[in-house]
Amino acid sequence: MTRQFLGSELSATENQPADALFQIIPCGLEATVSYGTGTRKGPEAILKASDQLERNVQGFEPCQQGIFTHSELDCTQPIEQVMQDLRDLTADISAKGHIPVTLGGEHSVSYGAVMGVLDALHQKGESLGIVQIDAHADFRVAYQGHHHSHASVMHLLAEAGLPIVSLGVRALSTEEELARTKHGVIAHDGPMLVRNNISQIELPDDFPENIYVTFDVDGLDPSVIAATGTPVPGGLGFYQSLDLVESTLKGRRCVGIDLTELAPVEGLTSNDFTAALICYTLMAFAAKTATK
């Protein structure tokens, strides 16, 4: 049986697949990593750590609106099939009015997860924008021969026409910087945010009402989470990252979430717990927007 997010904290009525607002999708894909390994173990580590969470987070209990954890996707398949399976599942979840929460796995999983949500919204004539927390731009055309690479996922999504707000980036190539500009990415990079202690931003009025949050844990400073494939110093603080995301959701609706790039290290369970807490806090933000 699949371990459930929040585990024994959930009542029977809060853990029903047909009714739960939040639908957790474990997707431990590790196919294109280019430095540290271990992201395939991320979903299980987050689910295990979630057993230690309190129901209440920042004065809110998102679990009251239901959390159901699906069986882990088969990531032994070719990456294109994993993407399609994930896309189909998030599209189905979104079409039913639920919020998919994908647990990676490497950041490439965001492509399938986001495109499924977009498919469902297009059926209703609605648009989607992305809020990205990340140390890296992930805007390469391809990387090390991989089209669906963790280093190119945001470029693929931009090519699909999705507007992007990027928060915390502090490692990018010249080519990526040019490509971000070409695609109109709204970039609030790490050095500016951290040096000026900025924790609130305002999105343009014409940015889509529906927001998908993709949270790569390497966007955080390694002092917060070090267990990730490509850590970069000078990152966002715990509360700073969450405050930034929450500020982007003002007057908008969060319709999808993913948390990626946790590479658990044996004995360092604080990293797993921090990732689980971030995930649950993002659910709290989404639940608040769903009640508007």
Automatic annotation (TrEMBL):
Pfam families (UniProt xref): Arginase
Keywords assigned by UniProt, alphabetized: Hydrolase, Manganese, Metal-binding
Cofactor entry: Mn(2+)
Signal peptide residues on this chain, from the entry's feature table: none
Cofactor mode of binding and number, as noted: Binds 2 manganese ions per subunit.
Species in which this protein is naturally found: PS1 clade bacterium
CDD domains documented for this protein: Agmatinase-like_2
Lineage of producing organism: Bacteria, Pseudomonadati, Pseudomonadota, Alphaproteobacteria, PS1 clade
Similarity comment: family membership: Belongs to the arginase family.
Residues bound to Mn(2+): H107, D134, H136, D138, D216, D218
GO molecular function: agmatinase activity; metal ion binding
InterPro entries per record: Ureohydrolase, Ureohydrolase_dom_sf
Keyword Manganese: yes
Gene Ontology biological-process entries: putrescine biosynthetic process from arginine, via agmatine
Name of the protein in question: Agmatinase
